[in-house]
Write a structure and sequence with these properties.
The structure is a single chain. With about 250 residues, this protein is α/β, with parallel strands linked by helices. Helix content is about 30%, strand content about 20%. The strands form two sheets. A six-stranded parallel beta sheet has the order 1-9-8-5-2-3. Strand 2, helix 2 and strand 3 form a beta-alpha-beta unit. The relative contact order is 0.19. The mean pLDDT is about 95. Bound molecules: 6-phosphogluconic acid. The site of 6-phosphogluconic acid has 15 residues, from strand 4.
Amino acid sequence: MAWNDNRHVIAVADPAALAKAAAERVIARINANPGRAAICLTGGSSPMALYQLLGSDPYRGRFPWDHVHWFIGDERFVPPTDTLNNMAMARRIFLDACAPAGNIHPIATDLADPDQSARLYESELKSYYGAGVLNPARPLFDLVLMGVGPDGHTASLFPGYPAIEETERWVVGVPEAHVEPFVPRVTLTLPALGSCREMLFEVAGADKRAILTRVLDGENLPAGRARSTGEMIWLVDQSALPENFRGR
Ligand code: 6PG
């Protein structure tokens, strides 16, 4: 089996336990940073329970909201009023009720095309970071949340697409999605996502087991190519856990 040196798979009982374990990790990362903390959220359905926990007691009171900045790892190129919009989902579930508006950093989708949105978000990230080149000793994010799609994509980095090979740009436009919803996307690239103290994948459900097995076996898929300059955690519930990880 091909292993990332720093990859750790943590098995949990079920989606509820997974959300709690993820919330503890997010809060620990925020509180470990005495200055401002940057969290990069993800879309899809997997993180919804985590977002609900972060926005409710007792989790909500366990970290300084003023010190946390919230970004998004990929966005569907639809208006924020569209239910498919990733940041709008996070805003609806917890950010709008808890975070100062100036600490929420959505990807703008009202521009002419996804590439323009990507360039704008890249400038925003560079300005937040205070430099145009990523320094491995000073990660962009404290924690980056990730999910895995049925084809092995992560963020909006799809298998076989040029975006996965990007080494210079921090954010790129993706004109066509490989899986539903078939709307153009804007996505952070592997170097930008990987510039973090912790990359945290959340994977739950029996329908994820086959693709997770392929990813963890080292197949050349975007989710398997994601690397972090810091910790690399895969939180997996029992129903998604590949056979060869059971009982470890
Ligand atoms: C998106 C996501 C995407 C997602 C995976 C897993 O915009 O669709 O960011 O990368 O994380 O497809 O999605 P689920 O959590 O819904 O399985």
